[in-house]
């Protein structure tokens, strides 16, 4: 097999870098993490002419090689480390035709590292529309590179790009800017101290913030005969460097690019006039949120009912087909209902990711950041906290990672701490099934009561996040510089392919990630529910027979009594009843208690747990929902899931911190156990209190 | 008269004359907030903060607290 070509995709955010990645690799890609850090690592394989293959690495978007976040640091660490197995043979710098000037800044920096580079000018289909024309030959000559004009939307230019990749050896590695022009004396000293090193590389190592990574900075500090400058002096030099780079770029573009403003059509202004308007902007944002929740509720109910039914009959079919025994019942009563509890939520989770990725791709999310910043700041948050808070409705884990672009540490910490209050998709299963049980159908101004309840729960989640942010802002004594810069990209019609890939990838990782935990827990629960210690469990048949001997019961009723008696005296029943005193005041029985306990691993386990517990006790083919509706409160004699206990349960899930993965991420991002521990204790005790008050007031 | 970016009204333009490099993050400079470049105030959020700008062809939003450290000369049409 011939050697693969290592390709790194680099570019500013919002240049359509991911579209280029998707176009090159198709579905031939995998998403993982960089070792030790939670930055997403996307790589894929691209087939080139003549049977050559290229390994494409999609690096996090960055405006320059001066890293200001963990994600951006990944880019510079890779480009400075020739020994890294992913070190590129060729770098593809993706730029946006409408922002060429700014995009070229990054390009010149990469060029100066003497890495063979190809310049992709993306969204070339918009050139006419914006009145832009380019002299590609001139640009190639001046920038000493090869240029591919690409339109991923129209699927143009990708073949040309591929052929440029295969011929990467012909690319020039001449730098654009002579680094020593920034400050002659300083750079002369630097070069004398390290005669064998690339000057620009040394400069990057010196100027990067020490907080990040492990570049070879130590080597430089270790040399005595070289004195570096103070931080503010360095920053002044960086400013000078930036000015020099822009001078070079301006000179190149003066000849290479002409923009006829009269031909440019400006949709941005028209859209912005409405979408960032003082009144309409907020109104539209609210309507969009409302639509999303209504859609999630209404549209996904059909596939969900279908999946629920399929799993119920599948479980029944297994029972009929396989020979009776422990193994069969483990599958039919443990694993299948447990998995059903997660598969059923695929439609909703997919919808949620669909909407979020459309909002991101279209450029609308930045407008929301702009609109919300002033308001969020009042609560100690940043406008950029809106993105984590919204994507927190899908899952708190990517949401907490999305806080990385918040410049102020205090604002970022508060965002991390309050994000788990937003209603993540793992809470949906719990809410949906309980809403279906306790909230009547019916409509109010065209919106279903059930959808409204769900909307209300989302609002409660946001409310809790905002209020606790406000309190944290008062309590936390952290001084940190606050910077806030957000790019307002052009509006774009989201590419269906990009959206589809995001939805599939995210849904898949949700299902498999949660699926593993759920499968394990279902199996454990089944064992605990199917076996028990002592006389009571093993002699259940005789005990029940004696107890009901005087009554005239059908065989079927006797069997049911035996089953539920056994469950009560199984290991799980004993544990459940031990914790029952603590949860009885909230209106729950011990089965719900077990479900709550197991959902401290992950919330979505709740439904699966109940499904497993209930199906161990019954022979009938039935859906999870019907089984839950049939449960009776042993003391009150009323349905177990009634309005009071249902509301109490939903409120408990709204506030409790029940997700081990989130705690792990918070630990990683804050680099301390203090914050996740506080989250767990404070959120969960608050949840208990609210659930208690709710049940006692409503019962 | 030397004024700062925060003094611009919606739709007005100016030329950046100086930026206080202590108060301005490098990222902002790299996005084009450099002396000599033209800046236009496109939109203001309620309470005149943040500011939505077009600097040198790049569209971005910054807070008022940052804008007061960017000195400009207003372009009078």
Provide structural commentary.
- The complex is a heterodimer of chains A (699) and B (77).
- In chain A, strand 2 and strand 3 form a beta hairpin.
- Mean pLDDT of chain A is 84; it is low at 210-215.
- Chain A folds into 3 domains: 1-264, P-loop containing nucleotide triphosphate hydrolases (Rossmann fold, 3-Layer(aba) Sandwich), CATH 3.40.50; 280-475, no CATH class; 515-698, no CATH class.
- Helices cover 59% and strands 8% of the residues of chain A.
- By secondary structure, chain A is α/β, with parallel strands linked by helices.
- In chain A, helix 19 packs across helix 20 (449-475) and helix 23 (540-547) packs across helix 24.
- Chain B is mainly β.
- Chain B has a single domain (3-75), classed as Roll (SH3 type barrels), CATH 2.30.30.90.
- Helices cover 12% and strands 42% of the residues of chain B.
- Chain B contains 2 helices and 6 strands.
- Chain B has helices at 26-30, 64-67; strands spanning 3-4, 13-19, 38-44, 51-55, 58-62, 70-75.
- Chain B has a 6-stranded antiparallel sheet with strand order 1-6-2-3-4-5.
- In chain B, a hairpin with a 2-residue loop joins strand 4 and strand 5.
- The radius of gyration of chain B is 11 Å and the shape is globular.
- Chain B starts with a strand and ends with a strand.
- Strand 12 of chain A pairs antiparallel with strand 5 of chain B.
Which terms would index this structure?
heterodimer, A: 699 residues, alpha/beta, Rossmann fold, seven-stranded mixed sheet, two-stranded antiparallel ribbon, 12 strands, 8% strand, B: 77 residues, mainly beta, SH3 type barrels, six-stranded antiparallel sheet, 6 strands, globular
